[in-house]
Amino acid sequence: MDFNGCKHIGDDCLYGQDGICGGIAGFVCRPGTTCMFKPPNVADGAGKCCLNEPSCSGLSYDHTQLTCCGGTLRPRVADPPSQTKCCGTQAYDERFHMCCNGQLTESPGGPRHSECCGNKGYDTRCGECNGWHIKLWYDQSKETCCAGDITPISSDVSCCCGHLAFDPTHLICKNGAVVPRATVRPGTCCMAHTSSHVPNTYCEAEPYNVTKLTCEGRVIKSEGKICCDDTINDRVAGPYTQCCGNISYDPSQYTCCEGTSLQELVAGDRTECCCRESYDPEKSICCDSEIQPFSNYTGYLNTTMCCGKKSYNPALKICCNGQLRNFFGGPSTTACCKDEAYDKRCYTCVMGQLRKDFNYPTQICCNGVAQYAPAGKHSCCCGATAFSPNTHICCNGALGWRKGGEFSSCCGYQSFDQRYEACCNNVVVQGGGGYDSCCGNVAYNPRTQICCGKNTVITRQANEHTCCCGSSSFNPEKSICCSGYVRPRDPKKRLQCCGIYSFNPKREICCEDTVQQRYKGKHATLCCGNQRYNTYESVCCESGVINKKYTPDDDCCCGPKTYNIKKQVCCNGKVNHKCGDYDLCCNNLSYDPNISICCNEELKPRSYGNMTLCCETEIFNPSSSICCGDKLIDKY
Predict the structure, then answer these.
(1) From residue 447, how far is each of 437, 444, 455, 465, 586 by CA, in Å?
(2) Cis omega (within 30 of 0) on the bond before 168?
(3) Domain residue spans of the chain
(4) Whole-angstrom Cα distance, residue 264 to residue 277?
(5) Beta strand spans in 340-420 (E)
(6) pLDDT tens per residue, range 152-166
C-alpha cells in the first residue's frame, strides 16, 4: 500500500539509490527518484530514494548499454561503457575524441595532451591556439606530429606509429613497429591516428568474404562485428553501421568523405563533403576542395560563387580566370581579358590582348571617359578626374595638393606632410621627427614616451620597461600599481595590492580592500567581510565576527551564538546538546527519535514505540486508531 506517497517493496533499488526519505525527519526525494520502504520500518526513516527507470525523450532504455545525449539515445562507445561521454547529441570515448564548443572532434594528443581551439582539438606538444586558429609549430609539407614528437616526412601522405612517421602506401604499423605491407594500397588518404594513445587500425589481411563471414581467414563469431577494409570492427550502430576505409561508424553521427575520411555531421542530414572535410552547404561553399564562407552582402544580388579556391559575390567582384578583380564602374561596364579585368568603355580585348580605344599617352580613361592626361603616361585617375601624381594626391576619392611633395600621404580625405605631421584617427595633427604613433588624437614618440589612456602621453621613466598605472607611468622594478595608484616596491617583501594600497601578505591581510595586521601565533587570521578574525577565538557568521562562547572547538554559527557541530545542534537559533548521535530539531528543541516524535512543531513522547504516529499535535497508535483530518477515531 501507499503511505505518505511512499511504497512498500521487498527488494533493494533496481536502478540505484540516491539518499533516504520519509520517516520521522520527513526527508523528501529529489525529482527522478521514488521513495521506497521495506517493512516494518515505515515510521522509522528507513526509506530509500530509488532512481526511476531511465528514460530518454520518453523512451526507457538499458543504461548499461545506452546513454542519453541531448534527448537522443546513443550506444555506449567507451571501454568501460560507463566512461562514455556526451557532446550535444553525440556519444564519444574521451580517449580518442573530445568536445570543443559543442562540436565533436578528434583528440590528437589524447586526454592528457589535447586542448580545444575553437571547435577543433590540437596536441599541446606540437602547437598552440591563437584566438580560434591552431598554430602548428612545424611545416606540414615537411613534418608531422607523432606522439608529441615533430618528425620529418618523405611523402605527401603520412601516418604515425608511436613516435615514428611512415608512408601508408607501402608500410604498415603492426604491434608498434613499422613493417612492409603485403599489398600496396593507394596513399591518397590515411586514417591512422597521429598519436600513440590510439590503437592502430591497419592489419595485414585478406579481402572480406561476406558469404563466409571471415576476415583474413578468421571467422567473425560475433554478430556485433563488421569487417571494414580487412579490419574487424564493432558494429557501433548495430545494423546501420557503415564502413569508412577500415573504420566502422554510426551514419547518424558521421559521414565518410573521399571513402576514407570520417567526419562529423556538422549540419545533420544536409551535411556535404568538400574533399576530406564535412561542411554545412547553407553556411559555406566548396571551392576547389576548400571550404569557404558565404558572402554576407545583403544587396540586390545576394549569392555566393567560387573563383578558384575563394568564394565571392558577383555583385561586388568579377572572376577572371580564377582571379578576383575589382569592377570598373560596375558589372555591366567590366569584362575579363585573360586573368585581368578591364573597362569596356575604354578598352577592347583582342585575342587576349587589351587594345586602348583612346589616344594614349595624351589621353587617359577615367571612369569610362577619355580625357586629357596632364602628366602623359604617368597620369592617374581619382574617380572621374585625371591628375598628375607629381602635384596632386588622391585620398579616398578626394583630389588634393601634395602639401609635402614626395613626403605626402593620405589621412582620411586629406593629405599631410609626414615630416611635420601625423595622422591620428583620420585627423591631421602635429607630429614628425619620431612622433609617428598615436595616443587617441595625440602623436607621440614611442621611444621616449608612453601612452597611458586616451590622449594621455607621459615621458618614459625606465625606457622600454616603463608601464602605465592609470594616468601615470612607473618603473615596475621600483614600484607597484594598485588600482591606478603608484606605490613603492620593497625588494625584500613580496608586496601585493589591496584596493589602492600595497601590503605585505606575511604580516598583513587584505579584507575587502582594507589592509589589517595579522594576529600573532599559530592560529590563522581570516577575513569576515572587511573584518579580520582569529579562528581560535571567533567564527565568521552572516552577522559578522562572533566570539566562540563555549569551547575553542566551536566551528559553526547559530544566530548570534557559536556552537560545536560534533556535540551540539542549532534549532531555530537556539543551541542545544545533541541527543545521542541525532541532530534532529522540533521547533527550537533537539530530540532523540527513538524516544520522542515531533508533531506539528510540538515534541511528544513515543508512547507506542516505533508505531507512534502524529495526528496534528496528538500522538496515536495506528493499530487502534486512525487520523481523519485533525481528529482521532477509534478503529473498534
Answers:
(1) 10, 9, 17, 11, 75
(2) no
(3) 2-53, 147-204, 207-251, 295-345, 467-517, 525-634
(4) 9
(5) 340-343, 347-350, 353-356, 363-366, 369-372, 380-382, 385-387, 392-395, 398-401, 408-411, 414-417
(6) 887 777 788 878 888
Say if strands 6-8 and 33-37 run parallel, antiparallel, or are unpaired.
parallel
One-letter amino acid of 504: N
Whether residue 313 contacts residue 304, with contact meaning beta carbons closer than 8 Å, is answered with: yes
Residue with cell 616603463: 466
Report the Cα–Cα distance between both ends of the chain, in Å, rounded: 22
Residues 569-602 have pLDDT tens digits of 999 888 898 888 888 999 999 999 989 999 999 9
- At position 600, the amino acid (one-letter code) is N
Neighbours of 606 (CB within 10 A): 18
Cα 435 from Cα 446, distance rounded (Å): 7
Per-residue cell: 486: 603608484
pLDDT digits (tens, 9 = 90+) for 505-537: 989 999 999 999 998 877 789 999 999 998 888
Helix, strand, coil percent values for the chain (each to nearest 5): 5, 45, 50
Decide which of 555 and 25 is more confident. 555
Q: Which three cell numbers stand for residue 435?
A: 612622433
Q: Are 47 and 54 in contact, with CB atoms under 8 Å apart? A: no
- Grid cell, residue 211, equals 558469404
Q: Give the span between the Cα atoms of 223 and 210, in whole angstroms.
A: 13
Q: What is the dihedral of CA 192, 196, 198, 200, to 10 degrees?
A: 50
Rg (CA), the chain: 39
Pairwise CA distance, residues 45 & 36, whole Å: 11
> DSSP code of 112?
H
Residue 202, Cβ neighbours under 10 Å: how many? 22
pTM surpassing 0.70?
Answer: no
Q: How many CA atoms lie within 13 A of 62 on its CB side?
A: 5
Contact in structure between 49 and 17 (CB atoms under 8 Å): yes
Q: Write the DSSP symbol of residue 198.
A: S
Give the C-alpha separation, 204 to 230, whole Å: 8
The amino acid sitting at 92 is: Y
Question: Which residues lie below 8 Å from residue 634, measured CB to CB, with a gap of 6+?
Answer: 624, 625
DSSP per position, 474-527: E-TTTEEEETTEEEE--TTS--EEETTEEE-TTTEEEETTEEEEPPSSSS-EEE
H helix intervals, 84-224? 110-113
